[in-house]
Amino acid sequence: MNMNGIPDWIMAICAVLSLIGAVISWWRAKLSNKARKRAQVQQEAATKAAETAQCHARAAVAQAKAAKEQAEIGKKQSEDIAALVAEVRSIREQGEKPRLKIFWNGSRHFNLRNTSKSSIVCTGIANADKFLKPPFKTPLTLKPGDITEGVFLTAHGRTGADALILEERNAPNLVVRFPPRPSS
Predict the structure, then answer these.
(1) HSE-up of 18 (CA within 13 Å, CB side)?
(2) Which residues pair with 161 in a beta bridge?
């Protein structure tokens, strides 16, 4: 065997190995680019999905808030309707002449007068929770023509009421509407 040919063989083998390495590098770079593109597409899809989820969450929060507001409005309307029904019943039973009437005596003080021809025994105030404190003490007996003074105090989110709903012994509640309040 000739020694002069060995370096040529080694060079040929190195060239083939370099060519194989180059092909492998080219193939892996191509696979890496495909993987990078797939990752970018998946990242864009995930970003869009997250944005859509945030949009849906905001819409759900807005819908929940609107539903809560509608429920509060419905509750207030049902309370108003119940008070009106009680007032209509009371007026009907009284022959359209109110048995009790409110007269303002300043912006916070009012007088409750018995305008009927019989005594009225008020055992409680059904809507006392609408006021900071009950306008007057109960039980209370008002003879015909009698007057009692009340105080209309509100605070801490309590706005007062449009009417006093008075509990009467052995009778339906009496609804007495407040006239427009004088300015301070």
Answers:
(1) 6
(2) none
